[in-house]
Design a protein that fits this description.
The protein is built from eight helices and eleven strands. It is of the alpha/beta class and about 280 residues long. About 40% of the residues are buried.
């Protein structure tokens, strides 16, 4: 199988390429001017995803996986053009490339941010309610993928708080860093929001499994354990040997994913929060 992947140098992409490279012929796109790592089974191609796709892409492909993220996702409004180009604009180009190359499958990495937070687990049948520009751009990419479902299997995977060894500047590594530095962890309400983060290996396995699905689908991809921010900080503190300190602000709604459909379609996540945090801390 020939698989074209964007975002291969990213956190999730790196884990996925290690997995796919063992079984498939993989062509991974990287930013021009960067030097991607050598991975068995992976051929790298430079491509600016904010520019038109180059002619060096394989003429024939079996699957396309779009994981790439704009580096400017936190920069509103200055970064909106780049965010929309990567999350939505190039998604359309990649979908049409998949169609022209004869691909049977397209997998789009979206986000749980397309949902509204609330007291109940969010399900794929819930109406999306993106609350910021980043989430709106992800929803735009989803809508583009859905329009191609009459032509190929177009999957939308909504990831919830991916974490694991080597990650930087995101939710869980930020919490661990504050504990390690002796800084307060700010909780919304008494215990903070409740979430079910997904370990990077489980997230990569879900992407790989999506290539085998017989029909288009939209899936939440989240972890097996629902925990509060206080729970995460206390587990992290034990692993780091440092008692976490807390501050509190006004309560905020939870963002927990229902994963019944994930279990049925691509398999249940296997790494619980205790093991995932231990592996993350030990690798630091």
């Amino acid at each position: 199988m020939t698989v074209v992947v964007t975002g291969g140098t990213g956190f999730l992409g790196s884990a996925l390429l290690e997995l796919l490279g063992q079984r498939d012929e993989v062509v991974a796109l990287h930013r021009p001017g960067t030097e991607p790592p050598a991975i068995a089974g992976v051929r790298w191609l430079p491509q600016d995803l904010a520019a038109p796709l180059g002619a060096d892409l394989p003429q024939a492909a079996d699957a396309v996986i779009h994981l790439a993220q704009s580096r400017r996702y936190r920069e509103f409004p200055e970064g909106v053009r780049d965010v929309f180009a990567v999350n939505a604009g190039v998604t359309v180009e990649l979908l049409d490339y998949a169609r022209r190359s004869g691909a049977k499958t397209f997998t789009y990495a979206s986000s749980g941010a397309v949902y509204a937070s609330g007291p109940e687990p969010v399900r794929e049948t819930d109406a999306p309610q993106p609350g910021n520009f980043y989430a709106a751009s992800k929803r735009a990419g989803e809508l583009a993928a859905e329009q191609y479902r009459s032509l190929l299997n177009a999957h939308v995977l909504r990831f919830f708080f991916i974490y694991g060894p080597g990650q930087r500047n995101m939710f869980i590594p930020g919490v661990l860093a504050r504990i390690g530095d002796g800084q307060e962890v700010t909780l919304a309400g008494t215990d903070g929001i409740r979430v079910n983060p997904v370990f990077v290996d489980d997230a990569a396995a879900a992407v790989a499994a999506s290539l085998e699905l017989a029909a288009s689908t939209t899936l939440n991809v989240a972890g097996p354990d629902v925990v509060s921010l206080r729970d995460i900080a206390e587990i992290g503190g034990r692993l780091l040997g440092s008692e976490p300190r807390f501050a509190s602000t006004d309560p905020q709604p939870d963002l927990v994913a229902a994963i019944d459909r994930m279990r049925e379609a691509v398999g249940a996540p296997t790494v619980g929060i205790e093991e995932g945090l231990r592996r993350t801390v030990e690798a630091a």
